[in-house]
């Protein structure tokens, strides 16, 4: 009699474990995004070369343009550094943002996103989590570039608040641009294709802008493009914030960010659902 009575509690315990009342709650959008964002940051930790490229490239541009061209373009290296550094912040973040599409296509080729889609999580969280990890890279890169600039003689008249506001604007713009590479990554599906097309587009947008020189001396046809280039709006607004000037270009810069989000977020999510 005693032996026959043992299985009943065991079955009852199994029913409790498998029952709906003890199942963990489905993770929400925020928790899924944060978890996969931590995954993206862990990948950076395991591949430090990513951060090496993210920090060394903008620092090299700062050094090269300041000391090779600063005297010719700005009258002195000190004056030119005041003009150049906010623009290099934008350029650095933009070039880092291409890694969003490269990393995405790599995960797609390895089948990782197929596994994510089989999990009971918010569907877009693999994309938003990866972009959240990229934001951390943008912040680290920007802080390093500003620190190097301060060591070289950069003196932001906007003070600490102006520098922080400028960095936040640049990071926001990088986050918005990352959705372009997300869409391209979902469409092209090869890291080489995304990297090549990304460098072509960014080379046009950054060099045909006001990052390195004032557009006042440019030919009319080129100046017309620079005047509507969203990169120019963000660069000018960052300069104004860091230099303590009236941020007259902050409105156009934020509008550019909003337009990028309104256009590329829905297109990326639609493409992701169909992939």
UniProtKB/TrEMBL annotation:
Pfam families: ABC2_membrane. The chain crosses the membrane at residues 51-74, 80-106, 127-154, 160-181, 193-213, 250-270. Its main location: membrane. PROSITE patterns: ABC_TM2. It is a multi-pass membrane protein. Signal peptide: none annotated. Keywords: Antibiotic resistance, Cell membrane, Membrane, Transmembrane, Transmembrane helix, Transport. It is found in: Cell membrane; Membrane. InterPro entries: ABC2_TM, ABC2_TM_bact-type, ABC_2_transport, Nod_factor_ABC_transporter. Residues 49-275 form the ABC transmembrane type-2 domain. Belongs to the ABC-2 integral membrane protein family. PANTHER family: NODULATION PROTEIN J (PTHR43229). This is Transport permease protein.
């Amino acid at each position: 009699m005693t032996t026959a009575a043992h299985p009943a509690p065991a079955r009852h315990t199994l029913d409790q474990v498998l029952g709906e009342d003890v199942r963990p709650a489905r993770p929400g959008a925020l928790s899924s995004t944060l978890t996969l964002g931590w995954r993206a940051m862990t990948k950076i930790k395991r591949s430090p070369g990513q951060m090496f490229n993210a920090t060394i490239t903008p620092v090299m541009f700062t050094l090269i343009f300041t000391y090779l061209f600063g005297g010719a373009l700005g009258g002195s290296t000190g004056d030119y550094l005041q003009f150049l550094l906010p623009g290099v912040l934008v350029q650095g973040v933009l070039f880092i943002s291409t890694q969003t599409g490269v990393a995405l296509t790599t995960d797609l080729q390895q089948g990782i996103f197929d596994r994510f889609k089989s999990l009971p999580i918010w569907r877009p969280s693999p994309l938003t989590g990866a972009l959240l990890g990229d934001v951390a890279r943008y912040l680290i890169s920007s802080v390093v570039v500003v620190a190097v600039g301060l060591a070289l003689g950069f003196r932001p008249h906007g003070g600490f608040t102006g520098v922080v506001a400028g960095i936040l604007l640049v990071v926001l713009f990088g986050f918005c641009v990352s959705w372009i590479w997300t869409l391209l990554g979902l469409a092209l599906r090869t890291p080489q294709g995304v990297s090549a097309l990304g460098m072509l587009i960014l080379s046009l947008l950054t060099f045909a802008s006001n990052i390195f020189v004032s557009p006042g001396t440019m030919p009319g046809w080129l100046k017309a493009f620079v005047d509507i280039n969203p990169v120019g709006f963000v660069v000018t607004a960052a300069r104004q914030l860091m230099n303590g000037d009236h941020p007259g270009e902050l409105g156009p810069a934020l509008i550019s960010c909003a337009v990028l989000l309104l256009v590329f977020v829905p297109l990326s999510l639609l493409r992701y659902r169909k992939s």
